[in-house]
């Protein structure tokens, strides 16, 4: 984003609602997948699968890739 570009509070509210909705959908689908596989714990595999099921094509690939990168970065910092 360009440094001189801003975002209105209404637009920020819409984006916040969107992100919260997507996270909730991923959590619910991950839970269903874990339950289906008779697991008590949601693992990264269930989350990746949920993302692939919920997001279309290239967006899912990018989301999974960025998620793996973020987790790897977090693990190397500790």
UniProtKB/TrEMBL annotation:
One annotated Gene Ontology cellular component of this protein: nucleosome
Domain annotation Core Histone H2A/H2B/H3: ranges: 4-53
Gene Ontology molecular function: DNA binding; protein heterodimerization activity; structural constituent of chromatin
Pfam families tied to this protein: Histone
SMART domains listed in its UniProt record: H2B
Name of the protein described by the UniProt record: Histone H2B
InterPro entries: H2A/H2B/H3, Histone-fold, Histone_H2B
Family per similarity comment: Belongs to the histone H2B family.
Species lineage: Eukaryota, Metazoa, Ecdysozoa, Arthropoda, Chelicerata
């Amino acid at each position: 984003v360009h440094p001189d570009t801003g975002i209105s509070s209404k637009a920020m509210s819409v984006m916040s609602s969107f992100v919260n909705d997507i996270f909730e959908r991923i959590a619910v689908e991950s839970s269903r997948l874990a339950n289906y596989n008779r697991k008590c714990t949601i693992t990264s595999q269930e989350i990746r699968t949920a993302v692939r099921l919920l997001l279309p094509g290239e967006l899912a690939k990018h989301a999974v890739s960025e998620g793996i990168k973020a987790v790897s970065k977090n693990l190397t910092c500790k």
